[in-house]
Amino acid sequence: MNATKAIFLKELRIEFRNKQTIIFALILSLMILASFRFAFSFIDFSLTELASPIIWVTFFFSGMFSLAPVYKKEVEQGTRDGLLLAPISPASIFLGKFLANFLVILGLELFSLSLFFVFFPVPTPDMVALLTIIILGTIGFAALGNLISAISSNLSQSEIMLPVLLVPILLFTIVMTSVSSTSEIFLGANLNEIFESIKLILVFDIVFLASGYLLIDYVLED
Amino acid sequence: MTHEILSARSITKSFGHDRVLRELDLTINKGDIYVLFGSNGAGKTTLMKVLSTLHPADSGEIMLFGMKSEENVRDIRAKIGFMSHETFLYDDLSAWENLNFYADLYSVHNKKKRIKEILKMVGLYHRSHDKVRSFSRGMAQRLSLARAVLHDPELIFLDEPYSGLDLRAQEVLNNLVIELNKKGKTFFIITHDIEKGFDISNRNGILSNGTIVIDKELDKANFSEKYNEILRREADERN
Asked: DSSP character for B134?
């Protein structure tokens, strides 16, 4: 637990001190939302129906941007072997990085969500339901993203390999379920009415977290 | 009486068709400063990574502190320090923060006292709160040594420790190694440079074609002669 906490704090400290990834991800979110706003200003559309895909596309790309360097930067900076030589479980490395990444992505998403409400004047949905879906979706996103970031860090062209490996799995699991339940929320559904979706996302979260926890040892081994 | 800290028997390691280590035998005793020389590509770094549990050997047996390497990885890692030509340090963290992070990973007791003590030992206490990014190569290497010995390991691996260091920094590093050796620490050092490594060693070896071809006490002149002969032979074989 000590090692997980140390890795979690180290990740956040470096992330907020360096700021590079966060600033780029924030700018990316802004650009995506502004592009959608611009594109949709020429056509008639139902804001409440399109809100969900707009939000999740923005979350998806800005989140992926912040996931890419999670393990790659350890390889590039030559600190990977330092972590592996420590007398700790590789699962601690996964958990520490996952928790830090989850918080960073969630922060980015909350920023994007605020921007979304500025760009797109929609009736305020059930915020408890919306935040529940966002938090649960982000857990699965960060868990699978961390595992695949670790896998791709050993490959050449890792920046390309991350989305190639991550998108197909994430799209048909977390993203699809989150988009459909977020749509329902914008059309007036409350927490009880999306309970089946919540259960499904929870299952994905557990599967992705367990996969990362159990497989990271083999992934980090050369 | 010699106390064996590391014993490797018939170690082999290949990467694809490339056999890097071939039936290698090695013993390191407590208190040794064992320096292993070898040309670039001789398999020095691979050997060090295999001995330090970072890579598994394909075959053979490694015993560290009386424990089988592959069965007691975490216990062994707690007792070894590793300093590579990569410093394992985070540029965006200060010297203190880097050591504090590794102290947590190694569950170091009284960590504040220990970090202070170790920073003073490597002469970097006055730069404790400066980011590693602002350090010279020599300072980063000294901090890297501090990181490697922070948890008071019994056996310390140094992989090309003189890489990128000026003469003054090399001297400082050698003095630190000798000082730690006097306190009972055992060192296994690999380098290609006989001038820099020989003087602090009390045991030497030469790695060639994936195996240790010389492992005995010779004076510097004889050892250098043998080493140069091996380097020439390797160059001829390559051509």
From this structure: G
pLDDT tens, B99-157?
Answer: 999 999 999 999 999 999 999 988 899 999 999 999 998 899 899 999 999 999 999 99
Residues β-bridged to residue B14: B19
Q: Is A85 close to B80, i.e. CB distance below 8 A? A: yes
User: What is the number of structural domains in chain B?
Assistant: 1
Do the domain assignments include residue B123? no
Integer Cα distance of A93 and A162 in angstroms? 19
- Asked if B34 and B5 count as a contact pair (C-beta separation under 8 A), the reply is no
B160: in domain: yes
Read off the pLDDT of residues A109-148 as tens digits, 9 standing for 90 and up: 999 999 999 998 888 899 999 999 999 999 999 999 999 9
Q: Computed over its alpha carbons, how large is the radius of gyration of chain A? A: 18
Q: What is the C-alpha to C-alpha distance for residues A82 and A75, in angstroms, rounded to an integer?
A: 10
Structural domain contains residue B194: yes
Question: CA of B92 to nearest chain A CA: how many angstroms apart?
Answer: 6
B130 domain-assigned: no
Nearest CB to B90; choose among A2, A14, A81: A14
Compute the distance between CA of residue A96 and CA of residue A2 in angstroms, rounded to an integer.
10
B220: left (phi over 0), alpha (psi -120 to 50) or beta: alpha
Which of B97, B102, B104 has the CB atom closest to A2's CB atom? Answer: B104
The ipTM value here is 0.88
Residue-number span of the structural domain to which B22 is assigned: 1-79+155-164+184-239
Calpha distance B220→A208 (Å, rounded): 58
CB–CB contact B93 A85 (8 Å)? no
**Residue A92 · residue A7 · CB < 8 Å:** yes
CA distance A118 to B145: 53
Residue of chain B nearest A93, judged by CA positions: B105
Q: pTM score, two decimals?
A: 0.90
Contacts of A4 in chain B (CB under 8 A): none
Which CATH number is B23's domain given? 3.40.50.300
DSSP assignment string, B3-56: -EEEEEEEEEEEETTEEEEEEEEEEEETT-EEEEEE-TTSSHHHHHHHHTTSS-
Q: Do A10 and B101 touch (CB under 8 A)?
A: yes
Q: With both helix axes pointing from N to C terminus, report the angle between A47-67 and A176-186 in degrees, rounded to the nearest 10.
A: 140
User: Smallest Cβ distance to B92: which of A18, A221, A222?
Assistant: A18
